[in-house]
Amino acid sequence: MPQYQRYLLNPPKSVVSNGQFNFGCYTAPFKEVNLHEAIRPYALPLPNFAQNIQLREWQAFQAGNGDYFIMMAIYNAKKLALVQFILYDIKTQKKLHYEKQVPAWQLQVPNGLYDTHAGYKSNNFKIHAHSDIGNGRITIFVEINNFKKLPPIKAHFVGYHEHQSGKANPMVVCMPFTPTRGMYSHKCLMPMKGNVQVGQQQIPFLRSNSQLIIDDHKGYYPFPTRYDWVTGFGYNKQGQSIGFNLTHNQVQNPEIYNENCLWLNGELHPLPPIKVHRPNGYKGQWLVQDEYGKVNLTFDPVVHTAVDINLLLFRSKYQGPYGYYNGTIKDKNDNSIVIEKMFGMGEDFYLRV
Fold it and tell me: Among candidates 159, 149, 102, which has minimal Cα distance to 126?
């Protein structure tokens, strides 16, 4: 079987320099995330306001402690914008889903993670993320009241993005859809601590057993957009922190440009391109594999989230189940890392807007 190796580079200061994307996979964060400075990312020249409408940007977070899984998102596709907080009780399979569509201009999505703020605020729905990765911290606050007959939620988390000491190494990419148009993503698995209050119930998240993944993301995506994405995290029987991020999307030359990785005790291990197969449909077992024998996972969904909207020019199809991963992933030294009943999520995404 052929060997696979993807080299990670030291990043330049900015995602875009002199109007051009700095395509590559990098070992550290960008200081400036400035996709808005790209020159003619589309074939036709667009005025600034029209180019900005095409730029999708979001910050999303997955968090968990083995008993609870949390999904948080501040998502701005300009024509569609939303905020989201989902709390899932793994043992009881009970899900609390707080989601609100909002005007795009009411969302705050910053350009980078060095002392920046993302969020949304209304009378009954507040979510705020302060990223201060220069000091190794990401702080998240959520407060939701009087929302669709759901119990009130109040949450506070601190993630330890200690990349400078090598304890939480991110996967940072700038990848091409065309030679002049691309996307940026910064994903990192890190320890975290915090608390969620649901009504009168307190749910602690201890640093010793809790983890957080951030996805800071911007892109001039193709029309229509399609991708598969799977992720999971937890601890193995040896007490090692494990997480993975695997995506199959429309990026050119995925052998060189992809965001697939394994995190093992904070160390980053690049992985090859993958594909997701669903021989028995979305509710059946998913197969996640590559052509180099590095990734061999199954995903068994237990709870489903689906969106299917068809409004002429607007078309959205989305499957986003939660469930369990089993199998193996090989690290950069070709050691097999066992993934056993690891909780996570998957997405099959299609958007034409």
Answer: 102
Residues 88, 28: one domain?
A: yes
Phi-psi region of 37 (alpha: psi -120 to 50; beta: other; left: phi over 0): alpha
- C-alpha to C-alpha distance for 241 and 233, rounded to whole angstroms: 8
In a domain, 6, yes or no: no
Strand partners, 240: none
Q: What is the pLDDT of residues 318-342, one digit of tens each?
A: 888 999 999 999 999 999 999 999 9
What are the tens digits of pLDDT across the range 172-210?
999 999 999 999 999 999 999 999 999 999 999 999 999
Q: What is the extent of the structural domain holding 349?
A: 222-353
Residues 162 and 247 in one domain: no
pTM of the model: 0.95
Q: Are residues 81 and 213 in the same domain?
A: yes
What phi-psi label fits residue 191: left (phi over 0), alpha (psi between -120 and 50 degrees) or beta?
beta
Give residue 339's identity as a one-letter amino acid code: I
